[in-house]
Every structure is written in C-alpha cells, then in structure tokens.
Design goal:
The complex is a heterodimer of chains A (about 325) and B (about 425). By secondary structure, chain A is an alpha/beta fold. Chain A is about 35% helix and about 25% strand. In chain A, strands 7-8-9-3-10-11 form a 6-stranded mixed sheet, sandwiched between helices. In chain A, strands 13-14-12-15 form a 4-stranded antiparallel sheet, covered by helices on one side. With about 425 residues, chain B is mainly α. The chains are: A alpha/beta (about 325), B mainly alpha (about 425).
C-alpha cells in the first residue's frame, strides 16, 4: 500500500501509511490501541475505501473480486450466526469463498479434527454455535478463515481473549502456514508474540508507520549500540562502580544489586566494557550481550504520546 | 452468482427450518378458518341451544292453533323431539293463566310463554313473554312457527287446499348482485370488495412482517459482528440482495401456502359448514385468472423489495434491537399511512384519493391491488404506477447497499442524516 490516508467524520484514522509485505512471510502490524491498525486492515480487505493512496493485494487492486477468494480474514470483533449449526455456518463461509459444498464438507471435518472439535465421542460440528464455549467459537471462526486455503491470511488481534492453550494452537497454526508458503499479516500489541513469530513488522502510531522492515534489520537500525546483562560475584559490584559510571561506555543502567542491565553508550562496544571490568579486577559470573527487544524498540518509536486522544479505538 | 446463491440459500434455508416458520405457516389457515367458519357455526349452535320444548303456549283461539304451533316447533330440520306444552283456555281464563305463568318466567323457571288469542288469527298479534336468560333466537323460532300455523288457519278458513297454498306462500328472494366492470368482467360486488380489501390487507401484513424480519436480520448481523466477516467475502450489494431475496422467498412460500389454503377453504366453505350441520349459502369466489394475478404478484414483490431495502437501511445504522424499534418508525408510518387510507379508497376506488395513492410508490403496493379488485384500472395508469414503484425500489436497494458498506462497520452513536447522505453518496 502506498500513501494511504483515511479520515472519519471527527478524526484522522490513518494519516499516511505505506507498507510492503513480502510473500511467504509472517508480518506483524504493531501499534497501540487507536493507532490505525484495524482501519489499515479493513482497507486492505476493501471493507473501507481509502480517501487517497493505492493498495494492491496479491498483485491486484484491493477490492478486485478475484482477490477476496484468495484471502482469509479473522476480524478482531468476532461473531457467528448463533442459532446456526457449526457445520452449516462453516459451509456457508466456505461457499462465500467459492468452495463447492462437497469439498467444503471434507475440509470442515479435517479442520474440526485438527482443532479438537470432533472426537470419537463428540462432534461439535452438529451443535449450534450458541451451545459452544467462547474458546470453541474462536476455533470455529479460525476454521472459517482457513477453510478455503487462502494465500494471504489476515488476523486482527488474533490472540485477544484466547486462553494459553488456544493461543499456542494458533501460534502453531500460523507457523504451519509459513511453512506452507502462505503469507500471514497479523495485528497485535503483544510484542512478545510478534517478536517470536514475525519475520517482519511495521509499527504504526498516530496513523503513521514509525518503523518497518525485517525483524533483524529493524533491531540493527533501531536497537542502538546494544544492551549487556552482567552478574557479579563477591564485591564485584562495588569494584565495577567506576566503570559503570563512565558515560563514554554506559548510557543507562538498570540496577538490580548483583545483577545490572547496561545500555551501551553510542560508539562503545561490549568488548570495551568487558575489558574495562576485567582491568578493574571485577569478579564476573555472567556477561551477556543481548539485542534490543522489540518491546524496547516499540516504546522508543511510539513514545509516551503514541496514543493520540480521540482516535477510534478500533486500532 | 455463486456467492449470491449462497447468501440466498442461507437466509431462506435457516428461516424455513425454524420452528417459527412452521408455526406461523400452519397457524395462518387455522386462524382464517376460525374467522370464516366460526361465526356461522356459533350462530347456529346458539339457535340450536334454544330448548323450545320448555316454552308454554297458551291457546285461547278456540281453533287448536296452539297445538299447530307446537307441532311446527317440534317438527322440521331443527325441531325438538318433544312438542312444547299447550294450555288451552278461554279468553277469560287466559288472563289468569298468563298472570301465573308470568311469575314462573320472571323467576326463570320457564324460558317463555306465547299467548294466542282469537284475534291473533286475523291480526297476527301474539304476545310473548321471555325470561331474561332466554336466547334471542327463541322469539325468532316462535315467530316462524306461529306464522306458518296462522297461514294454515287462514288458508283453511278460506277453504283452500292447505298444502298447495303453503307451497305458493313460500317465496324466497335471493338477490345475486353482479357488478359489471368497464372491461366486461363481472363478479359479486360483495365478494369483490372482500377480495380487494383482503388482498390489500394481506399484502400489508406480509410486507410489514417480512420487512421486520429483514430489519432484525441486519441488526443481528451487525450486533453479533458477523457482518464484518461476511463483507470480507461478498460485496455489500450482494449481501443485501441475497438477504432481501432469501427472506422474500420465505414470504412467497408462506403467502402461497396461506393463499392456497384460503382459496380451498372458501371454495369448500358451504360443504364444510353443512358437514358440521350448519345450513349456509355457498360463497362464489371471484373469477381471478393468471393474468389478474401477475400485477398482484408484481406489487407484492416490488413493494416488499422497496420496504425491505428501507428496513435494511434502518437496521444497518442502528447498534441494537431496541434502537431499531425506534428508528423504524418513519418506515412503519409510511406503511400504516397507506392502510389508514384504505377506507376512503374503498369508498370511491376510482376517486382522486385512490388514484393518487395508487401512483405513489409508498402506498401503491397496497392501494393498487385493492383498486384492481374493484374497478378496471386503465393499463396506462397501471404501467405508470408499476414503473414508479420499480424505480423507487431499485433506487432504495442501491442506496441501502451503499449505506450498508459504511454503516455496518460503525458502532456506537447513531449517524446523523447528513452522515447517512454522505455515506450513500460514497461510491465504490
């Protein structure tokens, strides 16, 4: 998408977003609530038309009828026809994506098995949606998203409301999708999940992309000189004081007593720091150089004012 | 096409499978049967429940007229096995007898007393006392029996053959009114009126009923947030069209079943009533050909599409069922207004009110079928009316489809009229 903008009656939801999602990757759309994530996703799906800008999906303009059958979508606000039987709902969703009833039925059974909704003793496919627990309903919604084997899967806040077991099932399935060569875009504000699952991310704040790219490149670009975790023994902490107060080496410190988290100063390296500590005869148990976390990059890029007052709350 | 048929199949299939559909479909003809067969049967039952044998006849005619009346009452199709008691007395004794019987009637020990005097045979004046609880039909039965007996007495007094005279006296006039229309069609005036008004009211009921179902369906989809999932696969126009067509199909099935059962019931009304032991005249149904049905069907379909689109538009801008109840008032007012004007249209089906209302698209689906049943509407008028209705129905569908796209994903505050107009104007 290129220079996309979308305004509602009272506010600007997306100011200027340009994104490119590589094929076959898991791509994270990160941002605080109200940043414009859901609006961006809705425009990709042609549920909303941008005021300006251009969006292409799978090589065709967004809204092209041939594209919608190749995309699977799990909205943040999830709902199903409560009075319908699970199998009939899924068959309907499959038919909307161009599946024949017979083929849909085969795939429904396969997915019900995979998601544990059909066992030797119980087949939840014949139950009404309203008789299912919330977790089960979320699984049914996910099956509805995947039934037509889409090339592009878009999941809006897929982990919200999931218990740890179902969250793990979802993570595993997303990784399976990547193995199968499908592209997955998912929005989240859970940095931990994004860091573990995404190949690339875009951080959106105030309706704009504030950082984007492959995960490694992003860390290199925005991660700063690096962070070191040091654990002392004996009176090591006292001996290290002079070194840790040297601003040419250290720009910040989280002090936990015998253990400290150190942000290296610009131009300093972990080797220099280690050399200085050894030179001061500091007894060290552990010296661990870590990359800047996505969480840290996110906080730095979005800042405390990342959530603008009056935004939609729809992400 | 496949997606549209999927939406139609869901809307149609889920509703036809519901218990609600089964109940209302079966309940409709029962209700109609109750309205059609109930009143004559009840009237007959109440006539039969008069125990006429308990009535006392005081005969002071000196010509055994009382016994004749008693025989009349006991005989005939609806007569009782026992004849009422007859007290034969003189003119002088009659007053005393009546005084004592009056006490019994007042105390509700006797349902009634008929007192025949000598002058009764000439003048026909008969005094009858009825207890407060005696059915009204008692006096009717007494009157008929006394009339027949007095006639017999008079015929005998004139020296005529009683049987032939009675036969001659039995003249029954049955008026069969036929209204001849400009196009040469004929039909019973009363039946045409009932038919025309019946069709108009039926169309109104079905349009309101199914328009509301469309409204509820849209509100539910929006409230349960399932609409976002569906709109990611089909365009708002297809979703709306599929919904309107699918629910319209349910309406057609139900309307078809109701109409077929009503026609069958009306055609066999006389037979069913006589099987129940109720004497009644048969009712001639108006001769409606397939060509007459086509405009009726067109008005139903176009009227339904117009109002379904309006109800769907209302459903898409509200966030809950309670809100929907309020927001639908303007649409309902359009429909109720049309029905409120049925009376003047019935009174003068070719008058300016009826003609104007049958051209205005909001009222034409109800008023024009009524006029078609009563008068010959010129083809040009019919064409203009149908044309206007088609244009507005198509416009309403396009506008509702555009509104759908934006409004279905908006929650919270209900949009202002300006916002609604802006959304409708948004193309694509």
């Amino acid at each position: 998408m290129e220079h996309v903008r979308k305004a509602y009656a009272n506010h600007l939801a997306v100011r200027d977003v340009s994104l490119s999602v590589p094929k076959g990757t898991v791509y994270g759309l990160l941002g605080p609530n109200g940043a414009g994530k859901t609006t961006t996703i809705r425009m990709i799906l042609n549920l909303m038309v941008p005021d300006t800008g251009h969006i292409e999906v799978l090589g065709r303009p967004a809204g092209d009828s041939a594209v919608s059958d190749r995309v699977g979508y799990l909205p943040e606000e999830r709902g199903l026809y409560r009075k319908m039987e699970v199998r009939r709902v899924l068959r309907f969703l499959g038919r909307l994506k161009g599946l024949q009833t017979k083929e849909a039925d085969k795939r429904i059974d396969r997915w019900l098995d995979r998601m544990g909704l059909r066992t030797a003793t119980q087949d939840w496919g014949n139950a009404k949606v309203e008789d299912l627990s919330r977790g089960m309903q979320q699984k049914v919604q996910f099956i509805g998203t995947m039934l037509h084997e889409p090339e592009l899967v878009i999941l809006d806040e897929p982990f919200s409301g999931l218990d740890p077991v179902n969250a793990q099932v979802l993570k595993d399935t997303v990784l399976d999708l990547r193995r199968e060569g499908r592209t997955v875009i998912f929005s989240t504000h859970l940095m931990d999940n994004a860091e573990r699952m995404c190949d690339a991310v875009a951080i959106i704040a105030r309706g704009e992309v504030v950082a984007d790219g492959a995960m490694n490149a992003l860390k290199k670009q925005y991660g700063g000189p690096g962070r070191v975790s040091i654990e002392f023994a004996g009176n090591g902490r006292d001996r290290a004081r002079a070194v840790l107060e040297n601003t040419a080496l250290v720009s910040g410190i989280d002090d936990h007593g015998q253990r400290v988290e150190v942000d290296l100063a610009v131009g300093a390296t972990s080797q220099q720091l280690l050399g200085q500590l050894v030179g001061h005869d500091v007894e060290i148990v552990k010296f661990d150089r870590s990359e800047a976390s996505l969480h840290r990059i996110f906080l730095e890029r979005v800042g405390a004012t990342g959530v603008e007052a009056g935004l939609s709350g729809n992400g | 096409m496949g997606k549209l048929s999927a939406v139609i199949a869901r809307e149609f299939g889920e509703r036809v499978r519901s218990r609600w559909f089964l109940l209302t479909t079966i309940f409709g003809p029962f209700l109609f049967a109750a309205f059609t067969l109930g009143p004559p049967w009840l009237a007959f039952r109440s006539a039969r429940s008069v125990d006429i044998s308990a009535v006392v006849i005081v005969d002071a005619t000196g010509q055994q007229a009382g016994a004749g009346v008693a025989t009349e009452l006991a005989g005939g199709l609806i007569g009782t096995a026992r004849a009422p008691k007859v007290i034969t007395t003189s003119a002088a004794g009659a007053t005393h007898t009546l005084d004592s019987l009056r006490i019994d009637v007042a105390a509700d020990r006797l349902p009634g007393v008929a007192s025949l005097s000598a002058p009764s045979i000439e003048s026909g004046a008969v005094s009858v006392l009825l207890s407060s609880s005696a059915p009204i039909a008692t006096s009717e039965r007494l009157q008929k029996a006394i009339e027949r007996e007095l006639l017999r007495q008079r015929v005998a007094a004139a020296g005529l053959d009683a049987e032939s005279a009675l036969k001659l006296a039995q003249v029954r006039v049955a008026l069969k009114v036929e209204r001849v229309m400009r196009d040469g069609r004929t039909g019973s005036a009363q039946v045409n009126l009932i038919f025309g008004a019946g069709v108009a009211v039926l169309l109104y009921i079905v349009i309101v009923l199914y328009g509301q179902i469309v409204l509820r369906s849209v509100t539910e989809e929006k409230q349960s947030r399932v609409s976002e999932l569906v709109l990611a696969s089909v365009s708002p126009r297809i979703l709306l069209s599929g919904k309107v067509l699918g629910i319209g199909g349910v309406a057609l099935v139900q309307l078809g079943f109701w109409t077929a059962s009503m026609v069958t019931l009306m055609a066999n009304r006389g037979r069913i009533l006589s099987a129940l032991g109720v004497a009644s005249s048969s009712m001639t149904l108006p001769s409606v050909s397939w060509t007459d049905l086509i405009p009726l069907l067109a008005y139903f379909l176009l009227g339904y599409v117009l109002y379904a689109a309006l109800f769907a538009a209302v459903g898409s801008i509200v966030s809950s069922e309670q809100e929907a109840q309020q927001a639908q008032t303007p649409v309902l007012m359009l429909l109720v207004g049309s029905v409120a004007l049925l009376q003047p249209a019935l009174a003068d089906p070719d008058g300016p009110i009826a003609r104007t209302l049958s051209l205005v698209p909001f009222s034409s689906p109800i008023i024009m079928p009524l006029r078609l049943g009563l008068v010959a509407v010129p083809t040009s008028e019919l064409a203009v009316s149908l044309g206007l209705l088609s244009l507005l129905a198509a416009g309403a569908m396009v506008a509702a489809g555009r509104l759908y796209r934006t409004a279905l994903l908006m929650y919270g505050k209900r949009p202002s009229i300006r916002e609604i107009i802006r959304w409708i104007r948004l193309d694509g």
